[in-house]
Amino acid sequence: MQTMQAMTLERPRRSLVMSERPIPMPSPGEIMVTVTACGVCRTDLHVVDGELSNPVLPIVPGHEIVGHVRALGPGVGGFAIDDRVRVPWLAATCGICPYCRGNRENLCDNPVFTGYTRDGGFATHVVADARFCFQLGEAGEDAEIAPWLCAGLIGWRSYRRAEEGRTVGLYGFGAAAHILTQIAKWQGRRVFAFTRKGDQAAQDFARSLGAE
């Protein structure tokens, strides 16, 4: 029996525990991925610190996942063995609520989340619903790309609603804002960054990227 290693949260507000378990095999519609990089998102810390209620415990946190497909479950199309993929925070949705029917599945009434209600990427292997994974191609380093598809994806969903606006305001200068600032400046837009009062480090960082 082949085994994998995983960092498991057994109880909130406790250190993760290294565990060894059988490598999971994909069910219909799923892919099994070997993890090459997994970022640490603030949401992961909320899970570990017990600030998000009702996680499925024990749980393997981590959702900024980049890896390669190693097995395909029955019925999976569009992926091949060795494809480089991204496994996201949103792991599955119900498909029937008003949000899902309105193409706003990020607001689904009955979602499943990677690293919160199903095992995530602080491990050597992970199983994921193929419908919610992205093919990445081979450009870029795994560890650099992982946060783009969490903070970057969330930020872009909001940013595109600015459409052709030439002045952009970003409230809170964290992972998403620092990525969007670089995009906005490249597009020739004016960017105003709003930070916590007295957060000199964030203000300096924002200015270094061209924000006001």
Describe this structure as you would to a colleague.
The chain has five helices and eleven strands; from the N terminus they run βββαβββαβββαβαβα. By secondary structure, the chain is of the alpha+beta class. The protein folds into two domains: 3-140, Alpha-Beta Complex (Quinone Oxidoreductase, Chain A, domain 1), CATH 3.90.180.10; 163-208, no CATH class. The strands form four sheets. A five-stranded antiparallel beta sheet has the order 8-3-4-5-9. β1 and β2 form a beta hairpin. α3 (142-159) packs across α4. The longest helix is centred in the last third of the chain and has 18 residues, at 142-159. The radius of gyration is 19 Å and the shape is globular.
Produce the secondary structure layout:
Blueprint: E1 3-8, E2 17-22, E3 30-39, H1 42-48, E4 64-72, E5 84-87, E6 90-92, H2 98-101, E7 112-113, E8 125-129, E9 134-135, H3 142-159, E10 167-171, H4 175-186, E11 190-194, H5 200-208
Parallel strand pairs: 10-11
Antiparallel strand pairs: 1-2, 3-4, 3-8, 4-5, 5-9, 6-7
